[in-house]
User: What shape does this take?
Amino acid sequence: MPPVTPPRDDDGGAALELLVHGVGGTTPQEMLDDPRTVRITGDETAAVYRRSEDAEDAGTDRSGEPGADRPPGRPVPEAYVWCNLTSGNGSRALWLLLLPFMVANLAHWMQPTTRGLTKTVRTYGVLVRLLALSLTVLLIAAACEVALDLTAWQCAGSSRCSGDKSWLGFLSTAQDGWWAQPGRRLAVAAVVPAALTGLLWYLSNRTWSAYESQRPLPAGAEPDPDEPTARPALGMPGFWYGRRLVARLRAAHTAAGFLTVAAALATAAARHDRRASGPFLEAAGRLLELALLAGAVLVVWVVCRRGRSESRLDVKLDRAVTTLLPGSALALLALTVLYAAWSRPGWVSDGRLPGDRTFGIIVLAQGGLVVALAAVALTMYRRVPDARTAMRGLGGPATAMLACALGGVMSGGVAQRVADWLDGAGTPGEPGATIAGPPVLLTWQASAIPPLLVVLLALGAFLAVRTWRARRAMAGDIEAEYPDAEPDLVRTRRIARIRAMAALTDRAPAILGVTSAATLLLGAAALLGAWVTGKVPGRAAAGGPDFVASAAQAAQALGSWLIGFGFILFVTWGRRAYRDAAARRTIGILWDVGTFWPRAAHPFAPPCYAERAVPDLTWRMASWTDHTGGRLVISGHSQGSVLAAAAVWQLPPRTRRRVALLTYGSPLERLYGRWFPAFFGTACLEALSHEVHCWRNLWRRTDPIGGPVRVKGGGQGPDVDRDALKDPLAYGRTREQPLPAPVLGHSDYQADPAFGRERTALLDRLPPCAVPRQRPDTPLGQGSSGRSSG
Assistant: This one.
C-alpha cells in the first residue's frame, strides 16, 4: 500500500472540514457541490463522503488527504450524511403513531438548570417517567375500548349491530354458538390490544439494538490535568449510551400493556361473578385482581427505581427485569383469558364496560402528575433563575400536558370513528342506535376541542397584529442597512415581513403556555362534567337555558367530528408517508427535531438518532486528528450544529484542542438553550466556547430557526457570534447582482462570502500541524473512568 500523504494547506498543515447537514437531510453531492462522491466510512444509514478526486489521492485507507488540485488555504471537505436515521424506509411512517410518546420524552430533557438539587432532579425524572407510563396505559386502554367494549361487548352482543357484519358472525349472540358468551368474546378480542403491545415491544427492541447499542468513543486512560472536574452533561461518557435504562423501561411498559389488557378482561368477568356466579369463580376473580394489582405495583417500582447513568459507560443489563417482568405479565394475561373464557351461561352483555372509570382514573392521574411536575420545575428554576429559560422553567410540564392531549385525541378519535362505523347510519348512544358508544368521558373530551380552538384562534389573531406592527417598525432599519440603494417600498415590506415572521419563533413559549393551560383547564372541566352528570354534554345541558343546550350540542357534534378527523388525518398521513418518499422526508424533519434526545422517559418513542450520529462524528474527528495530527473544522448547519456541538463535547481534550467549531443557522441558544437549559443553557454554551479551541457562529435576522448563541469571546478571541449576515446580500439590482437577490432565510449560508472568510480565520487560529501518532494500530482511548449518577 502506498504511503498516505496528508494534505497541506498554505501554512503546511493537514486541514479537514467536516460538514454536517441540518433537518430534512440532503445528498452528499449537494453538500460537496460535486456529482462524483465516494463513501469514506459508514453504511447506507449514515456515512462520511468525499469528492472522488479527494478520495483517489488519499491512499487505500482513505484517512489521509489529497493536495493536487485543491485551492491554497482551503481544507478538504467531508460530508457526514445522517438523514436516513430518521427518514429512511417506509416503516418510519409507523412512528407517527408514537408522537405522544416522543413529546413526553422531550419533557424529560426540559428540566431547568440545577445546582446541588440531586433529589429534586431525580423527582422530576420519576414524575416524567410515570407520566410516560400512563400514556402507554392510555393507548392500550383505547385499544381495549375499541376491541373489547365497542366490538366484542356491544356490537357482537347486539343482533342489530352484528347482523350485517359477517366478520363478527361467530361471535354474535344471534348465532348462539360456543363463542357467543360475553367472556369468550372478550377473550378473543383481547388478541388485538395484546398484539399491539407486542408490536410496540418489537419496534422498541429492534431500534434499541440499532441505536442505543452504539458504543461511544472511550475515555482516555489517563485523566487530563487541564480538563474541568465538573463536566457538562453532554460531555459525560455515558450520555449517549442509554442501553440499560431503555431495556428496563421497555420491559416495564410491555408488562404494563399486558396487565392493562388482563385488567380489562378480569374486571368485566369478576363484576359478573360477584353477582351471579359461585364461590369458585368469585374467588378466582379476586385472586386475579390481587395479582394484577401486585403486577402494577411492581411495574411502577421498576419505572421509579432507576434513572439514567451518565457519568460512566453503563454496559450492564438487568436480565431479571427485562426477561421476567414482561414474561410474568404475559403469563398472567394467559390465566386471565382462561378465567374469562370459563362457561357462564347466564351472562348477557348490556350497556358499556367500565371504561368511564378507567379513562377517568388515567386522566386524573395525568393531571396530578403534570401539576406535581410544574411544582418541581418551579422549585428548580427559582434555585437557579435564568431569564432566557422558556416559560420560567415550566416548558417541561407544558410539553407533558401536550403529550397527554395528543394521547387523548388519538384514543378518543379512534373510539369515536370505530363506534360510528359499527353503528352504521345511527349515532352511538342516541335513541335508535344499535350500541351505547364510547365512554361518556371521551365525548366530553371531544367537546372541549372547539373551545380550545377558539382560544388558539384568539391567540393567533393577537400574534398576527403584533407581527404586523413589528413589520411596520422594521422598515427604517432595513433601508438603513443598504445606504447606497434606492429605497423600494415593496422590497422593504417583503424583507420586513420575512423578518417579522422569523421572529415568531421567539413567541413559541407563549403559544405553548396558553395551549397547555387551556388544555389542562378544559380537561379538568370535562372530567368533572363526565363524573358528575354521567351523561354526554348535549343531554347534560338539556334541562338548562336554550343557548347553553344549543352550545353544548354544537360543541359535542363539532368535537366528535374534529377528533375523528384528527385520527383519520394521522392514518392518512402515515399511509402516504409509507408510500411516498417525499412525504416520509417531511415526517423525517419532525423526527429530526423531536428525536435528538435519548429515550429517557418512554421506551416506545421513536429512537434517538443522536446516539448513532454523535459517536459517528466523535470517532471520525478523533481518528483523523490522531492519525494526521492536522487541524479540523466541524461545520454544522441547523440541527447539524447541535450534533456538532454534542460531538465536540464528547472529544478527549487532546483532540478538542485541534478542532474548530463553525455553526450557522444554529438553534443552539434560540431553541435548545431556552427549552433545554440544563444541557444547552448559557453556562453550558460558555463552557463549550472555552473548551473548544475556537468557535464562530453565523446567523441572519430572516432565519426562523437559527440565531445568535450569545456567548462572549473573553480573552481567548473574538465573540462567538458574528454580526448578523445581510439577507438579501443586495437590496436592489447592482452590477454584481443584476437580478434581484433572494432572501435566503435559513438556507445557503455557504453562498455568503463571509462563510469562507470565517472558515479560513478559524483554521488560522488553530495550532500548527502536530506530529501524527507513530502507532496507528493502538486502539483509541484505552479504558474508561467515571462514577455512576444513579
Notes: DSSP finds 26 helices and seven strands in the chain.
